[in-house]
Amino acid sequence: MIPSLSYQRYHTIDTMKQFVFDRLVDRDNICNLEREQRQLRAAVQSASRVVVYGPRNYGKTSVVRNVTIEEFQVGHKRHFVYFADLLGVRSMRSLTQRLAAGLQRCFAASFPVKGLLESAARLLGSLRPEISLDPQTGSPSVSLHPGAADSHLALQTLWERIARITEEIDSLVVLDEFQDVALVEEAPAQLRTCLEALGDVPVLLLGSKRHMLAELFAAPGAPLAGWGTDLEFRSIPYDDYHAYIEERFSQRHLAIARAVARSLQDDMQRVPEAINRLCAQIMELHEHTEIGREHVRSALLKLLENREGRHASYLSAFSGTDETVLTEIARHGTVEHPQSKRFLGGVGLSSRTVALSFRRLWNQGVIELVAHGYRIADPLLAAYLVRYR
Which residues contact 197 (CB under 8 A, 6 or more apart)? Predict the structure, then answer.
């Protein structure tokens, strides 16, 4: 469905106060997270190593990219920021390629155009760098060719170059969705060696799948046991988000009571991206009114209707077993005991089949474990399953 012009206006015009989703949240539109920003600032200033974790869409990457990295760049005239996203890596080859792609982007962004070729030859020589220019923008780009057929050797060569750069220039290293390296045999041990090769450099490892991070950092004998300190991104306080919503609703002369705003946040599992998406839909539908629970419900239904095809397409990639399990989880809201007679009776599957399905969905980040059990990580997907399945 093509959005109306009024809906586009609230998402394409760069106003100061917006409900931002589907992209990184800029500094002016981050709700609270001041504690996390302070701790990250202190960690970078003291060259600490930190494991930053919290559910997906809680603002980790937005804060790091748009606050922490930006402040680091402003504070260091000459700087090198290395950032790589490891989401979905499944082999040493894909891991090495992802790290190389990160180095290609970050090297070109961190060094002046004048002398870039000389810097690349001196610092990246063994990776056989090639410099080219974008024909439209004129911006330079760096291509790397590690050369080693063995992905383990290619990774070592790649990281030696990164370590060398950090020895010469004030640097910050950030690896996002780091937990996925747990699925690559030998990768965690390899990366520990790589990280230990860095000197007095701040390192931030971001992750959203807590149980996989625990297997890497907390379990007895874990490959990265004892590495760094932890920083958890927590749910934003209800009252802070209420004030954030009211500030943006005022553009449409909307008001929302504290109790209704709290209920809305709970409906969206207190996930900032989902809250923002639902609030933007409310702004599309209403103006000059007091938003009540009925307005929230109608906006959610409209949002699900607009995204029905997307959710249906997403679910088509799952096996029948996994879709059945997901649908039953959505009906329960939270499942404390997946092996209970009640849950097994609802899905009509064996205990072992359900256990394997839960493990798959957990590792993929489709479901998450919270204080009272397992739930679907995306609150809009959960709402879609309840309504349409």
Answer: 159, 160, 163
Beta bridge partners of 374: 335, 369
Q: For residue 368, give the 3-state DSSP assignment.
A: strand
- State the Cα angle at 383 between 381 and 386, rounded to 5°: 110
pLDDT in tens, 42-89: 999 999 999 999 998 999 999 999 999 999 999 999 999 999 999 999
**Cα separation, 277 vs 300, whole angstroms:** 9
Instruction: State the architecture of 318-388 in CATH terms.
Output: Orthogonal Bundle (1.10)
Q: What's the 3-state SS for 297-328?
A: HHHHHHHHHHCHHHHHHHHCCCCHHHHHHHHH
Spatial separation of the C-alpha atoms in residues 6 and 10, rounded to whole Å: 7
The secondary structure of 279-303 as a DSSP string is: HHHHHHH--SEEE-HHHHHHHHHHH
Domain at 33-232, CATH homologous superfamily: P-loop containing nucleotide triphosphate hydrolases (3.40.50.300)
Domain residue extents for the chain: 5-17+236-306, 33-232, 318-388
- List alpha helices for the chain, DSSP H: 5-12, 34-45, 60-63, 69-75, 92-110, 116-124, 151-168, 187-196, 210-217, 238-249, 258-267, 272-285, 293-306, 308-315, 320-332, 341-347, 351-363, 379-388
Report how far residue 251's alpha carbon sits from residue 166's, in angstroms, rounded to the nearest whole number: 46
Task: Give the model confidence (pLDDT) of 313-365 as tens digits.
Answer: 999 999 999 999 999 999 999 999 999 999 999 999 999 999 999 999 999 99
Residue 184 to residue 94: CA distance in whole angstroms = 9
pTM of the model: 0.88
* CATH class of this structure's domain 5-17+236-306: mainly alpha
Per-residue DSSP letter, 174: E
Answer yes or no: are the C-beta atoms of 96 and 155 closer than 8 Å.
yes
Give the C-alpha separation, 20 to 160, whole Å. Answer: 38
Tell me how far the alpha carbon of residue 308 is from its chain's centroid.
23
